[in-house]
Amino acid sequence: MVASCSSSGSSPSSIGVLLAFVMQWLVGNWLSEALKLSIPAAGWVPAVQGYGVGMVVLLTFGAPPILALRRVPALRVLRRDLDRTEPSSWLVGAAGVAGLAALLWWKAGSAALASWMLLGIIATLGVLAALAWGLIALVRRLRSRLRGSLRYGLANVSRRAATSVAQVSALGLGLMALLLLTFVRTDLLDRWQVSLAKEAPNRFIVNVQDDQIEPVRAFMAEQGVPAPDLFPMVRGRLVAHNGEPVKAAPAAEAATTEEERRGQRRLDREYNLSTAETLRDDNRVTAGTFWGPRRPEKPELSVEEGFAAAMRWKLGDRVAFDIAGQRLEGTVTSLRKVEWESFRPNFIVLVSPGALTGYAASYITAVHVPPGRTRFTAELVSRFPNLSVVDVDALLAQVRSTADQVSTVVEVVFYFSLLAGLLVLMAAVSASQDERLLEGGVMRVLGGSRRQLRLAQASEFAAIGLLSGLTAACAASVLAGVIATQVFGLPWQTDWRLGVVGGGLGMLAAVSAGMFATRRVLDAPPSVTLRELQG
Fold first, then answer.
1. Comparing C-alpha atoms, which of 55, 65, 115 is closest to residue 85?
2. Distances from the Cα of 55 to the Cαs of 9, 201, 308, 461, in angstroms?
3. Cβ(401)–Cβ(36) below 8 Å
4. Phi-psi region of 358 (alpha: psi -120 to 50; beta: other; left: phi over 0)
5. What is the DSSP string of 209-251?
6. 350 forms bridges with which residues in the sheet?
């Protein structure tokens, strides 16, 4: 049995490895041209890994049906009317999940990461299957209102409900990935950029010195840019919390978790401290009381709430910083929620007015430069060489360019996911080939024409494709909504184009693959089909 599996797996693995090398060469050359990057050729290690993947898939997915052959009676080979011997669906499912888990563990290199990835895949397929089941139930109700070949095609979808759910889920997974990727790359990035204030700052100017404040403002006036607000910035290192010296962060080699590494970075870095009498609309007090126009006798601190939670600071805590050898200690009197996406200067720690007097400070500001002022940055740096200018427009363009490049690469992978869904569809059609041949033969004997049979099959696969596309669109819309609200801070906005594009792609892919897989049903003579299948 093992020898049989090994010999059966070596040929498909060899074909798969050969195709992989060809695809790597074709896709690699295309990506090199598209991304203007040099992509190295594949080595021999992926080929060996390909054979390993092939054997794992063969043993986990192919072994249960082969083992079930031991219980097949000899008479079943001669008589098709006897019941078939099927392997346990639970055994097949458990073996498949075990094989997938082994592959994930192998490629991820971590049992925990592989487990989370496996749970994510199972959950995604579960959600897609639930959506597919609901849509198929809807089709079951609608088919009674239809007539002719269309009704027969939809009847096949609902009659083979379990198979249809598997087909819709597999095809919908690839479509969902493609729709989500396209939506995030285009619409969400466009909406996020449009959501920025029309006059949002697009240049950050850093390291302005005391004696340069007025000359910088005069330069802005010459350029027709509104006079900017300049914010003092004093660098300090955290040294104490509630009177206790801050413990040294663990050495880099001793930090074993991401939390320890983040803690190390917080303790090792210097912080930019600033001061303000009033808060802008992108800062909102969530706890405590902000000092406002009053000048406290002792230094008070206002801290960004996320950072305070990470450092375990609370209202009333005393925090000390070392500023160029001098100690500054203040009490945390308020916590703030900061909208960092406002593209205006913001600070983690604000100090009450007067507390930073006497400390060496530089200033930071942000201005909006109208489009077309291409010489603004060059002229500013030429007049003030010590200034550093951050071009936000250039950064956004780079972000979009990087997102497009990454999306292009990932999109190629997702096309293979879509291809895998089509292969599942064709495999399911092949598994029901005898049943479809028998149904086609009966319809032809009863007077059905080839055109009617072709239309019935096309309607069945069109329904499966449409259900796959709608399922993918629903899932992609939900995921896009989560990304929009949690990552970009945008309101959840449904897009009807997802359903149209998803349904169209699903129908086109399913009809093409399905009609190709069932071409024998149309070509086989009814008399031969009935004689072979009914004996």
1. 65
2. 6, 57, 52, 32
3. no
4. left
5. -GGGHHHHHHHHHHTTPPPPP-EEEEEEEEEEETTEEPPPPPP
6. 274, 302
Three-state SS for 396? helix
Q: What's the average model confidence in pLDDT over 518-534?
A: 65
Distances, alpha carbon 76 to alpha carbons 72, 73, 81, 82, 305, in Å: 7, 6, 8, 6, 72
Residue 10 token pair: 């070596």
C-alpha–C-alpha distance, residues 459 and 147, integer Å: 12
Which carries the bigger pLDDT value, residue 530 or residue 7?
A: 530
Cβ atoms < 10 Å from Cβ of 120: 10
Among 463, 483, 519, 429, CA closest to 184:
483
- 329's enclosing H/E stretch is strand 326-338
pLDDT of residue 351: 94
Residue type, 347: F
Q: What angle do CA 454, 456, 462 make, to 5 degrees?
A: 100
User: Shortest CA distance to 389 belongs to which of 130, 165, 207?
Assistant: 207
Cα dihedral value 390, 391, 397, 401, nearest 10: -40
Residue 87 and residue 61 in contact, taking contact as beta carbons nearer than 8 Å: no
pTM above 0.70, yes or no: no
Quick check: 481 pLDDT over 50? yes
Structure-model confidence comparison of residues 369 and 403, the more confident one: 369
- With a cut of 50, say whether residue 253 has pLDDT above it: no
Spatial neighbors of 11 by CB under 8 A, at least 6 apart, are none
Give me the phi and psi of 449, to 5 degrees please. -90, 165
- Please identify which residue in the block is written with the tokens 């801050």: 246
Residue 505, token pair as written in the block: 């792609």
For residue range 225-249, what is the model confidence (pLDDT) as tens digits?
888 888 999 999 999 999 888 875 5
- Render the burial of 40-65: b for 16+ CB within 10 Å, e for the rest: eeeeeeebeebeebbebbbbbebbbe
With tokens 């971590």, the residue in question is: 110
State the Cα–Cα distance between residues 166 and 132, nearest whole angstrom: 9
| 180, amino acid identity | L
Measured between alpha carbons, how far apart are the two ends of the chain, in Å? 31
Distances (CA, A) of 519 to 223, 460, 462: 72, 14, 16
Closest residue by Cα to residue 173 from 464, 468, 493 = 468
